[in-house]
Amino acid sequence: MGRRRTPHARWALLTVLLLALVPACGGEFGLPDSASDDGDRILGLWRGSVLAGLAVAALIWALVAWSILRYRRRNDELPSQTPENIPLEIAYTVTPLVIVAVLFGFTVFTQEEVTGAERDPDLEVEVIGFQWSWEFRYRDLGVEVESTGEEDPVLVLPVGSVVRFDLVAEDVDHSFWVPEFLEKRDLIPRVDNQIDLEVTRAGEWTGRCAEFCGLQHWAMRFGVRAVPQDEFDRWIREQGGSV
Questions:
Q1: 73 sits in which H/E element
Q2: Computed from CA positions of residues 36, 41, 44, 48, in that sequence, does the dihedral angle turn out positive or negative?
Q3: CB distance 168 to 23 below 8 Å
Q4: Which end of the chain is more exposed for a tag (fewer CB within 10 A), N or C?
Q5: 123-238 placed in CATH 3.40.50.10420
Q6: Cα 191 vs. chain centroid, distance in angstroms?
Q7: What angle is formed at CA 199 by the lines to CA 195 and CA 200, rounded to 5 degrees?
Q8: What is the pLDDT of residues 104-141, one digit of tens each?
Protein backbone atom coordinates (compact mmCIF):
# COMPACT_ATOMS: atom_id res chain seq x y z
CA MET A 1 0.00 0.00 0.00
CA GLY A 2 1.42 3.41 -0.97
CA ARG A 3 2.29 5.92 1.70
CA ARG A 4 0.11 9.02 1.87
CA ARG A 5 1.85 12.36 1.42
CA THR A 6 1.95 14.55 4.52
CA PRO A 7 1.05 18.27 4.33
CA HIS A 8 4.76 19.07 4.63
CA ALA A 9 5.53 16.91 1.58
CA ARG A 10 2.83 18.65 -0.42
CA TRP A 11 4.22 22.08 0.47
CA ALA A 12 7.72 20.94 -0.42
CA LEU A 13 6.53 19.73 -3.83
CA LEU A 14 4.73 23.04 -4.43
CA THR A 15 7.87 24.97 -3.48
CA VAL A 16 9.94 22.96 -5.98
CA LEU A 17 7.43 23.67 -8.75
CA LEU A 18 7.44 27.39 -7.98
CA LEU A 19 11.24 27.51 -7.94
CA ALA A 20 11.26 25.79 -11.34
CA LEU A 21 9.29 28.73 -12.74
CA VAL A 22 11.66 31.39 -11.38
CA PRO A 23 14.19 31.22 -14.28
CA ALA A 24 11.39 31.86 -16.76
CA CYS A 25 10.45 35.04 -14.91
CA GLY A 26 13.92 36.54 -14.66
CA GLY A 27 16.49 38.07 -16.99
CA GLU A 28 15.45 38.12 -20.62
CA PHE A 29 13.14 35.10 -20.41
CA GLY A 30 15.85 32.75 -21.68
CA LEU A 31 17.03 34.98 -24.54
CA PRO A 32 20.36 36.82 -24.77
CA ASP A 33 20.52 40.56 -24.20
CA SER A 34 19.43 42.27 -27.38
CA ALA A 35 22.05 44.19 -29.38
CA SER A 36 19.83 45.51 -32.19
CA ASP A 37 16.62 47.45 -32.70
CA ASP A 38 14.95 44.42 -34.30
CA GLY A 39 16.09 42.34 -31.35
CA ASP A 40 14.36 44.78 -28.99
CA ARG A 41 11.11 44.34 -30.94
CA ILE A 42 11.39 40.55 -30.92
CA LEU A 43 12.25 40.53 -27.23
CA GLY A 44 9.20 42.66 -26.47
CA LEU A 45 6.97 40.19 -28.32
CA TRP A 46 8.61 37.28 -26.50
CA ARG A 47 8.12 38.92 -23.10
CA GLY A 48 4.44 39.52 -23.83
CA SER A 49 3.92 35.94 -25.01
CA VAL A 50 5.64 34.45 -21.96
CA LEU A 51 3.71 36.68 -19.55
CA ALA A 52 0.45 35.78 -21.29
CA GLY A 53 1.30 32.09 -21.01
CA LEU A 54 2.17 32.43 -17.32
CA ALA A 55 -1.07 34.32 -16.70
CA VAL A 56 -3.13 31.61 -18.40
CA ALA A 57 -1.28 28.89 -16.47
CA ALA A 58 -1.85 30.73 -13.19
CA LEU A 59 -5.56 31.10 -13.96
CA ILE A 60 -5.89 27.40 -14.79
CA TRP A 61 -4.11 26.33 -11.61
CA ALA A 62 -6.22 28.74 -9.56
CA LEU A 63 -9.43 27.35 -11.06
CA VAL A 64 -8.27 23.78 -10.44
CA ALA A 65 -7.42 24.59 -6.80
CA TRP A 66 -10.72 26.42 -6.33
CA SER A 67 -12.67 23.49 -7.81
CA ILE A 68 -10.90 21.00 -5.55
CA LEU A 69 -11.51 23.05 -2.42
CA ARG A 70 -15.02 24.23 -3.29
CA TYR A 71 -16.44 20.94 -4.52
CA ARG A 72 -14.53 18.37 -2.51
CA ARG A 73 -16.69 15.56 -1.20
CA ARG A 74 -18.36 16.40 2.11
CA ASN A 75 -21.07 13.72 2.28
CA ASP A 76 -22.76 11.05 0.19
CA GLU A 77 -25.31 13.36 -1.42
CA LEU A 78 -25.44 13.46 -5.20
CA PRO A 79 -23.95 16.76 -6.46
CA SER A 80 -25.88 19.16 -8.64
CA GLN A 81 -26.59 17.73 -12.09
CA THR A 82 -27.09 21.03 -13.96
CA PRO A 83 -26.71 20.09 -17.66
CA GLU A 84 -25.23 23.39 -18.83
CA ASN A 85 -23.92 26.80 -17.88
CA ILE A 86 -24.24 28.95 -20.99
CA PRO A 87 -22.40 32.08 -19.72
CA LEU A 88 -19.50 29.97 -18.48
CA GLU A 89 -19.30 28.01 -21.72
CA ILE A 90 -19.27 31.23 -23.75
CA ALA A 91 -16.56 32.68 -21.50
CA TYR A 92 -14.18 29.74 -21.79
CA THR A 93 -14.72 29.62 -25.56
CA VAL A 94 -14.34 33.33 -26.28
CA THR A 95 -11.46 34.07 -23.87
CA PRO A 96 -8.88 31.77 -25.58
CA LEU A 97 -9.92 33.14 -28.99
CA VAL A 98 -9.34 36.70 -27.79
CA ILE A 99 -5.94 35.81 -26.32
CA VAL A 100 -4.84 34.09 -29.54
CA ALA A 101 -6.13 36.98 -31.67
CA VAL A 102 -4.20 39.55 -29.60
CA LEU A 103 -0.99 37.53 -29.73
CA PHE A 104 -1.46 36.99 -33.48
CA GLY A 105 -1.93 40.72 -34.00
CA PHE A 106 1.24 41.63 -32.09
CA THR A 107 3.13 38.89 -33.95
CA VAL A 108 2.11 40.17 -37.38
CA PHE A 109 2.96 43.76 -36.41
CA THR A 110 6.41 42.75 -35.11
CA GLN A 111 7.05 40.58 -38.16
CA GLU A 112 6.28 43.50 -40.49
CA GLU A 113 8.62 45.72 -38.49
CA VAL A 114 11.46 43.18 -38.50
CA THR A 115 11.23 41.88 -42.05
CA GLY A 116 10.61 45.24 -43.71
CA ALA A 117 13.51 46.66 -45.75
CA GLU A 118 12.09 50.10 -46.42
CA ARG A 119 14.51 52.23 -44.42
CA ASP A 120 17.30 54.17 -46.14
CA PRO A 121 20.41 52.34 -44.91
CA ASP A 122 23.53 54.16 -43.73
CA LEU A 123 25.70 51.22 -44.74
CA GLU A 124 25.33 48.20 -47.04
CA VAL A 125 27.27 44.99 -46.51
CA GLU A 126 27.16 42.04 -48.88
CA VAL A 127 27.25 38.84 -46.82
CA ILE A 128 28.45 35.85 -48.84
CA GLY A 129 28.10 32.37 -47.38
CA PHE A 130 29.89 29.37 -48.84
CA GLN A 131 31.05 25.95 -47.69
CA TRP A 132 32.26 26.55 -45.06
CA SER A 133 32.94 30.18 -44.21
CA TRP A 134 31.93 33.79 -44.87
CA GLU A 135 32.97 36.86 -46.79
CA PHE A 136 31.85 40.44 -46.09
CA ARG A 137 32.01 43.14 -48.76
CA TYR A 138 31.59 46.82 -47.88
CA ARG A 139 31.03 47.72 -51.52
CA ASP A 140 30.59 51.49 -51.16
CA LEU A 141 33.65 51.75 -48.91
CA GLY A 142 36.00 49.53 -50.90
CA VAL A 143 36.67 46.96 -48.18
CA GLU A 144 36.40 43.16 -48.27
CA VAL A 145 36.80 40.81 -45.33
CA GLU A 146 37.70 37.28 -46.40
CA SER A 147 38.24 34.07 -44.52
CA THR A 148 41.88 33.16 -44.00
CA GLY A 149 41.11 29.50 -43.41
CA GLU A 150 42.74 29.73 -39.96
CA GLU A 151 40.72 32.44 -38.22
CA ASP A 152 37.04 33.30 -38.45
CA PRO A 153 36.28 36.44 -40.50
CA VAL A 154 35.13 39.43 -38.45
CA LEU A 155 32.16 41.62 -39.41
CA VAL A 156 32.78 45.14 -38.09
CA LEU A 157 29.71 47.38 -37.69
CA PRO A 158 29.10 50.96 -36.53
CA VAL A 159 26.81 51.44 -33.54
CA GLY A 160 23.73 53.54 -34.21
CA SER A 161 23.70 53.13 -38.02
CA VAL A 162 21.09 51.30 -40.07
CA VAL A 163 22.92 48.48 -41.87
CA ARG A 164 21.52 46.55 -44.81
CA PHE A 165 22.87 43.02 -45.19
CA ASP A 166 22.52 41.67 -48.73
CA LEU A 167 22.63 37.89 -48.30
CA VAL A 168 24.21 35.77 -51.04
CA ALA A 169 24.73 31.98 -51.10
CA GLU A 170 27.43 30.72 -53.42
CA ASP A 171 26.57 27.02 -53.27
CA VAL A 172 23.90 25.65 -50.92
CA ASP A 173 21.49 27.10 -48.39
CA HIS A 174 23.05 28.85 -45.38
CA SER A 175 21.62 31.01 -42.61
CA PHE A 176 23.00 34.27 -41.20
CA TRP A 177 22.51 34.20 -37.43
CA VAL A 178 23.87 36.39 -34.65
CA PRO A 179 22.10 35.31 -31.43
CA GLU A 180 22.34 38.80 -29.90
CA PHE A 181 20.42 40.24 -32.88
CA LEU A 182 17.58 37.81 -32.03
CA GLU A 183 16.84 37.06 -35.67
CA LYS A 184 18.25 35.05 -38.53
CA ARG A 185 17.76 35.00 -42.25
CA ASP A 186 18.49 32.33 -44.84
CA LEU A 187 20.92 32.63 -47.73
CA ILE A 188 19.37 30.79 -50.68
CA PRO A 189 20.98 30.41 -54.13
CA ARG A 190 19.37 32.70 -56.74
CA VAL A 191 17.10 34.30 -54.11
CA ASP A 192 17.52 37.95 -53.02
CA ASN A 193 17.32 38.24 -49.25
CA GLN A 194 18.08 41.16 -46.96
CA ILE A 195 18.14 42.22 -43.34
CA ASP A 196 17.95 45.85 -42.20
CA LEU A 197 18.89 46.50 -38.60
CA GLU A 198 20.57 48.97 -36.30
CA VAL A 199 23.15 47.77 -33.80
CA THR A 200 22.30 49.51 -30.53
CA ARG A 201 25.34 48.81 -28.37
CA ALA A 202 29.04 48.14 -28.71
CA GLY A 203 30.30 44.61 -28.15
CA GLU A 204 31.80 41.48 -29.63
CA TRP A 205 29.76 38.39 -30.46
CA THR A 206 29.90 35.19 -32.49
CA GLY A 207 27.74 34.61 -35.55
CA ARG A 208 26.93 31.21 -36.97
CA CYS A 209 25.32 29.43 -39.87
CA ALA A 210 21.96 28.16 -38.62
CA GLU A 211 21.16 25.97 -41.63
CA PHE A 212 22.81 22.55 -41.99
CA CYS A 213 24.97 22.96 -45.08
CA GLY A 214 27.38 20.03 -45.09
CA LEU A 215 29.87 18.06 -43.06
CA GLN A 216 31.71 21.12 -41.72
CA HIS A 217 28.61 23.15 -40.95
CA TRP A 218 29.74 23.24 -37.31
CA ALA A 219 32.84 25.27 -38.27
CA MET A 220 30.95 27.99 -40.17
CA ARG A 221 31.37 30.82 -37.68
CA PHE A 222 32.22 34.50 -37.90
CA GLY A 223 32.99 37.25 -35.44
CA VAL A 224 30.96 40.42 -35.00
CA ARG A 225 32.45 43.60 -33.55
CA ALA A 226 30.24 46.67 -33.03
CA VAL A 227 32.16 49.91 -32.44
CA PRO A 228 31.44 53.66 -32.33
CA GLN A 229 31.29 55.44 -35.70
CA ASP A 230 34.70 57.14 -35.39
CA GLU A 231 36.37 53.82 -34.59
CA PHE A 232 34.57 52.20 -37.53
CA ASP A 233 35.80 54.96 -39.88
CA ARG A 234 39.35 54.45 -38.60
CA TRP A 235 39.06 50.69 -39.23
CA ILE A 236 37.84 51.28 -42.80
CA ARG A 237 40.89 53.47 -43.52
CA GLU A 238 43.20 50.86 -42.00
CA GLN A 239 41.73 48.30 -44.42
CA GLY A 240 42.51 50.54 -47.38
CA GLY A 241 38.97 51.81 -47.87
CA SER A 242 37.58 55.33 -47.94
CA VAL A 243 34.80 57.00 -45.89
A1: none
A2: negative
A3: no
A4: N
A5: no
A6: 24
A7: 145
A8: 999 998 888 888 766 688 899 999 999 989 999 998 89
